[in-house]
Prior knowledge:
Number of domains: 1
Distance between the termini: 20 Å
Radius of gyration: 14 Å
Amino acid sequence: MNALASPLAALPDVLPGIAAAAVRHDRDASFPHDSFAALHQAGLLALTVPAALGGGGGGLRLTAQVVEWVGAACPATALVLAMQYLKHATLARSPAWPAALREQVQHDAVAKRGADQRVAGGA
């Protein structure tokens, strides 16, 4: 799914799997790679990446809704997702990073698996 079309439309399909996995991840103290894979498939990891770079271009209101819904299913997943959203939103407005590096990080969030890609053990 493309995050630009309707980011919230994909959530009802992915939330049950995220909620079911939350119990296992809490018990095993494991990172929810599967939840992030589902969010990536739904086009939601790059929600705050600028639309010009293939992301959703989502603002704070939409992002907060997604984090709220994901948080009801799995607070740990929502925490990492919120950190990713905030980082990409900040990155898009920050002149501190060289433009080429900033765009590469944002592109990777769209094309790859975002936060999940950068965690040890991520697929």
